[in-house]
Amino acid sequence: MTRFRLDAIATTIAAAVALCCVPVVAAAQQAAILGIVADSITGRPLENVTITLDVGGRTSYSTFTDRNGFYQIPGIGAGTYTLRIRRVGYLGHEQIVTLAADEQRRVSVRLGETAMVLQGVVVTAEQAAAAAREPERKVVTPTDIRMVPVPGGSGDLVTYVQTLPGVTTTGDRGGQLFVRGGTPADNLVLVDGIPIYQPFHILGFYSVFPQDLVSGADFYAGGFGARYQGRTASVLDVRLRDGNPLGFRAMASVSPFLTEALAEGPVEGATLLASVRRSLIEETSGTLLGATQPLTFESQLFKVTTTHRSDDRCSLLALHSADRGRLDPEDQESQVSWNNLLFGIRCVTLRRSGQLLEAHWGYTRSGSDAVARGASRLESSIWRVQHDLHATGRIGLIPVEAGYEIYLEAMNYDVSELLSSGTQGRDDVWGAGAYVEPTVPIGSSIEVRPGVALVALPRAAVEPRRRVRWEPIGPSKTALPGSLGLYRKY
User: Fold this and answer.
1) For residue 377, how many C-alpha atoms fall within 13 Å in the half-sphere facing its CB?
2) What is the DSSP secondary structure assignment for residue 231, as one 8-state letter?
3) 237 C-beta neighbours (distance < 10 Å), count
């Protein structure tokens, strides 16, 4: 069994490395253009930017940037085109490009923001580009988070997620989400690519993701692709914003339930972002609510991001959170607490060969402690070290995403005061897997993503994933999506 697993690891990792490192292949006599679009001031990658190649005022080729600001248009006939890059709220970019047969042109652009004067507003049912291309993906922005009020100085991501279809919670206390019948353990939550075990605070409408720190988030209530493995219910992939590169800024706020402070600014070739939050519920609830609520939480965050190059970015993240309280205010003996500690590195680079690489290295830990009725103490902790790599490129005219993941996860537990035997111990789990997901167009109205996840450890398995989008009456009109796959929890 051991030998089989070692062979499976070697085979899976070798396959993933080969997929990630395979050179971009151009179709014969056809050119390609690619690059990264970012904000000119902050350097933040811009998603859903419209990229077109026009001839004689008519669009011949078009695409959109992804979450990393990356775009690619393969299969372009040799000739001269007008490249137009546009996004609402930004100054457009336009240039003439002449492409030769078999040429791969790299054009990365930074767009400046601009004020727009609108003569009128027409509300339609048309979806954003990301939602239209991945209907199972809900893109959450800081503007969305701001729409749902919370008792504090700013909005919070978890409060917004609770308003989405299929998402329920245990109530004001508990800090757990249930998505489409799954348990909290079936949900995968990532912060800048690193898993976090218990990101939701003990008071249900707060988390470690306040509006002021979130750049964007992707939420999948099922139907997610082969990139996400090890969970069966949902994925919440959160991206934190970078610090302000224009100058130092500090702010603090106090509300009846929460106090928070934030500082950010530039240093040589990088930006800093630091945040501290602490609840005041336990101190103020007696006066404001007439009864003391034994609930408290806090969090601290520090992030450094490099900014000196347009197509290469790295960030270092450190995050800590702690929660404590009594879930039953009438039971003086019961108490529950948990904490998170996370360190992560994320790097994104656009290679000369035309591939976008996104890599993560991380350490994450969570500990829980509970005292039940009768003073029985239950303790558990879990930590994880991991590395993963994701590549976006193409083979011929087919866009392909591929990657791999390796990790070590260890869990300690002690429930001996509650049960009599087999209640203490430690479990170590090695994990390794890879995936590949091409995007295959069928005609002009059907797009198929036949992904597959190859898992070597902890149990060897093949998990096929299929996502399909059909546009029966033309692009950007009505799309009929569907997804089918095999999902396993490790």
Assistant:
1) 4
2) -
3) 21
Instruction: Tell the residue number behind the tokens 């085979």, with chain if given.
Output: 11
* DSSP one-letter string for 320-349: EEEEEE-SSTT-SS-EEEEEEEEEEEEEEE
In whole angstroms, what is the distance from residue 251 CA to residue 237 CA?
Answer: 27
Segment 121-130 long-range contacts (CB within 8 Å, at least 24 positions apart): 126/476, 127/479, 128/48, 129/48, 129/50, 129/64, 130/47, 130/48, 130/64, 130/67
pLDDT per residue, tens digit, the chain (490 aa), is 444 444 554 555 555 555 555 555 545 568 899 999 998 888 888 988 999 999 988 888 888 999 899 999 988 999 999 999 999 889 999 999 999 988 889 999 999 887 655 555 554 444 444 444 666 788 998 889 988 887 766 789 988 998 898 888 876 566 688 898 888 889 999 999 999 999 998 877 889 999 999 999 999 998 899 999 989 999 999 999 999 988 999 999 888 888 999 999 998 889 999 999 999 888 887 787 777 788 899 999 999 998 766 678 899 999 999 998 876 667 777 788 899 999 999 999 998 888 999 999 999 999 988 887 656 778 889 999 999 999 999 888 889 999 999 999 999 887 665 555 556 777 889 999 999 999 888 877 888 899 999 998 888 889 999 888 887 776 555 778 888 888 888 7
Amino acid identity of residue 425, one-letter, is G
The answer to whether 442 and 448 are in contact (CB under 8 A) is yes
Element (H, E) at 405: strand 398-414
From CA 88, how far away is CA 113, in angstroms rounded?
9
User: CA-CA distance, 311 to 356, in Å (whole number)?
Assistant: 9
pTM more than 0.85: yes
CA dihedral 85, 87, 91, 96 (to 10 degrees): 10
